[in-house]
């Protein structure tokens, strides 16, 4: 039992924080540019597991998500490449999640647009 941290569901959990297991992110870092709809689906499926730690995940992946629609022909554009690289960068620099302090107040921030919405529950200095 005397573990200072444990890997669980591809996250490292310690007494102070929760963060993405760096070994699991390696597959995303080394992913080459998708050349088919199947490869995009596979990449988005893997990246989607971490969507809760990537700010603006839906906005970042919008160009890639458009390519998997049936009424769209596969055309890898500069916008798709930027989306692909931005998502990889976000996944390798994910924030560290701190455990809440129930004696402190919580703050909720929210935002919405025509493409998506998001909100964050946080505490100052956590």
UniProtKB/TrEMBL annotation:
Organism whose genome encodes this protein: Prunus dulcis (Almond)
Name listed for the protein in its UniProt record: PREDICTED: retrotransposon
Pfam families hit by this protein: RT_RNaseH_2
InterPro entries xrefs: DNA/RNA_pol_sf, Rev_trsase/Diguanyl_cyclase, RT_RNaseH_2, Viral_Replic_Matur_Polypro
Reverse transcriptase/retrotransposon-derived protein RNase H-like domain boundaries: 76-125
Domain of life: Eukaryota
């Amino acid at each position: 039992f005397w573990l200072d941290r444990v890997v669980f569901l591809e996250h490292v959990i310690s007494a102070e924080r929760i963060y993405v297991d760096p070994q699991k992110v390696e597959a995303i870092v080394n992913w080459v540019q998708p050349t088919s709809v199947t490869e995009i689906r596979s990449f988005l499926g893997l990246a989607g597991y971490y969507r809760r730690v990537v700010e603006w995940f839906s906005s970042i992946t919008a160009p890639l998500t458009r390519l998997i629609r049936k009424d769209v022909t596969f055309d890898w554009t500069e916008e798709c490449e930027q989306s692909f690289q931005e998502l990889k960068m976000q996944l390798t620099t994910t924030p560290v999640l701190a455990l809440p302090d129930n004696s402190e107040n919580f703050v909720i921030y929210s935002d919405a647009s025509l493409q998506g919405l998001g909100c964050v529950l946080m505490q100052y200095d956590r």
